[in-house]
Automatic annotation (TrEMBL):
Origin species: Flexivirga aerilata
One of the GO biological process terms: pentose-phosphate shunt, oxidative branch
Keyword NADP applies: yes
GO cellular component assignments: cytosol
Transmembrane segments: none
Upper lineage: Bacteria, Bacillati, Actinomycetota, Actinomycetes, Micrococcales
Name used for this protein in its record: Glucose-6-phosphate 1-dehydrogenase
InterPro entries in the cross-refs: G6P_DH, G6P_DH_AS, G6P_DH_C, G6P_DH_NAD-bd, NAD(P)-bd_dom_sf
Gene assigned in the entry: zwf
Pathway: Carbohydrate degradation; pentose phosphate pathway; D-ribulose 5-phosphate from D-glucose 6-phosphate (oxidative stage): step 1/3
Database matches in NCBIfam families: zwf
Superkingdom assignment: Bacteria
Function: Catalyzes the oxidation of glucose 6-phosphate to 6-phosphogluconolactone.
PANTHER family per record: GLUCOSE-6-PHOSPHATE 1-DEHYDROGENASE, GLUCOSE-6-PHOSPHATE 1-DEHYDROGENASE G6PD
Entry binding sites for NADP(+): G18, A19, T20, G21, D22, L23, A24, R25, K149
Family of this protein: Belongs to the glucose-6-phosphate dehydrogenase family.
Length: 481
């Protein structure tokens, strides 16, 4: 990755828009505290702002409560005391001049140079207003801006949004975040593929039969009906997270670990993707969704989507990629599963168990406790030749490194402060993903009902036939030692 100055030497002011929202409380405020507590961000000030009329003390209390509720790490009271002094708040109703004044006040006495980082944790509709506020407040020069997804709702709106943001910020200042790319397990796909000689030679259509990227969630709306009704599972998860993960899984070896090199290879994958065929998409809605508070009684928003997509290049032609995600499903999982081709002939007799548990699989678990496994057939001990599915597994949490894992948002904020764009998405990549999505957006199949706690509507089986979904797993992950 790019050698930027280490952040211990950098003074950083984070202006957090949407500072009282769900994402800020769950991830961003606890994450900023962790970056401060671990000295990854040396001198840090946080200026919170939102539509809520809080005082500075109330914002400090909200931050503390967020850390207590959502941080996985014990709080050192001395460090908290130092952090609390670095928190400021200004309501958005106070206007751009008040925002600028609070930022200057926060920065008093900080060693120069100071890196200003605006984090726009706001819905897409509000993003342009915030950009306007930053221009009026004179907080643009030298600043960086992290933008949350979704970037637009279709190709036209994504282009319009990118054009409007470019009127104020250069592309080099913009960091479009996709937190799935900050997950340790996602980064490990790159290490696994490109740091080893063993796997890359078989990483293509001659050996891989299909790929599944499957992210069912047990969670429901979690009070986000307002956001979700206008977004749905496809825009919330597929056009962002799942396609980005697909990019890492399918790309050619980049020439270096530099942002341009990685982005170029990811964008090549996106350019090779065929436009989505509506007949290859299953949209679902869990029963009871229309009764949720804030949901239209005749809502057609999908809370589930499964689809087949194709990458039409030399490496992947003919290999289907199946993607699935949804709310209120049977289990919460985040896996990439690579299914290898089966042997062309078998000397093992019928009834030996060969092929009975599907093909050999390589599976990446993108959970915070990252794991991977390779499953294959082996001999069951004893007389005769009974075959069973066996597996080799690796879990980060079985190693001594477990404590060093950075949560995805922590990792990405840290990278943005250092100016490292490797794990951020670009306007070009995002626009291409909307472009291949447009046939689906223009011609959406109907939403099919599914029972909460299930794996989605029945049509999911036809989508993958004669293959089967890898989830639910036949065999569980090995427990921690
Ligand atoms: C967010 C989506 O981007 O990702 C949520 O808006 C989803 O709907 C979440 O629940 C999943 O992220 P993670 O890191 O919990 O898998």
């Amino acid at each position: 990755m790019t050698q930027a100055p280490t952040t211990q030497e950098t003074s950083t002011t984070v202006v957090l828009f949407g500072a009282t929202g769900d994402l800020a409380r769950r991830k961003l405020l606890p994450g900023l505290f962790r970056l401060f507590a671990t000295h990854l961000l040396g001198d840090l000030r946080v200026v919170g702002t939102s539509m809520e009329d809080l005082t500075r003390d109330e914002f400090i209390d909200l931050t503390r409560k967020s850390i207590d509720d959502f941080s996985k790490h014990a709080v050192d009271e001395k460090i908290w005391g130092a952090f609390a002094k670095r928190l400021y708040y200004v309501p958005s109703s106070a206007g751009p001049a008040a925002l600028e004044k609070t930022v200057r006040e926060a920065e008093e006495g900080m060693p120069e140079p100071i890196q200003l980082l605006h984090y726009l944790s706001v819905p897409p509709k509000a993003a342009l207003d915030v950009i306007g506020t930053l221009r009026e407040a004179g907080l643009v020069k030298g600043a960086r801006v992290i933008m949350e997804k979704p970037f637009g709702t279709d190709l036209a709106s994504a282009r319009a949004l990118n054009a409007a943001v470019h009127e104020v910020f250069d592309e080099q200042q913009i960091f479009r975040i996709d937190h799935f790319l900050g997950k340790e397990a996602a980064l490990n796909i790159l290490a696994f593929r490109f740091a080893n000689g063993l796997f890359e030679p078989i990483w293509h259509r001659n050996f891989i039969e299909h790929v599944q990227i499957d992210v069912p969630e047990e969670l429901g709306l979690e009070g986000r009906a307002g956001f979700y009704e206008g977004t749905g599972a496809f825009r919330d998860m597929v056009v962002t997270h799942l396609f980005q993960v697909l990019g890492f899984t399918a790309m050619e070896p980049p020439t270096s670990l530099e942002p341009e090199a990685i982005t170029e290879e990811k964008n090549k994958v996106f350019r090779s993707m065929l436009p989505l065929e509506p007949m290859d998409v299953v949209r679902g809605q869990y029963q009871g969704y229309r009764d949720e508070k804030g949901v239209h009684p005749e809502s057609e928003t999908e809370t589930f989507v499964a689809l087949k997509c194709r990458i039409d290049n030399w490496r992947w032609a003919g290999v289907p990629f199946y993607l699935r995600t949804g709310k209120k499903m049977a289990e919460g999982q985040r896996i990439i599963s690579i299914a290898f081709r089966e042997p062309p002939k078998s000397m093992f007799p019928q009834g030996s168990g060969v092929g009975q548990h599907g093909p050999d699989h390589l599976t990446f678990d993108l959970a915070d406790e990252a794991r991977m496994s390779l499953s294959f057939y082996g001999k069951r001990p004893g007389p005769g030749f009974r075959l069973d599915k066996l597996s080799m597994q690796f879990a980060v949490h079985d190693t001594d490194w477990a404590g060093s894992v950075l949560e995805a948002y922590e990792r990405l904020i840290y990278d943005a402060v250092r100016g490292d764009r490797t794990l951020f998405t670009t306007a070009e990549g995002i626009e291409r993903l909307w472009e291949i999505s447009q046939p689906l957006i223009d011609n959406e199949p109907p939403v099919r009902p599914y029972a909460p706690g299930s794996w989605g509507p029945n049509q999911i089986h036809q989508l993958v036939a004669p293959r089967t979904w890898r989830l639910p797993f036949e065999r569980k992950w090995r427990e921690k030692h």
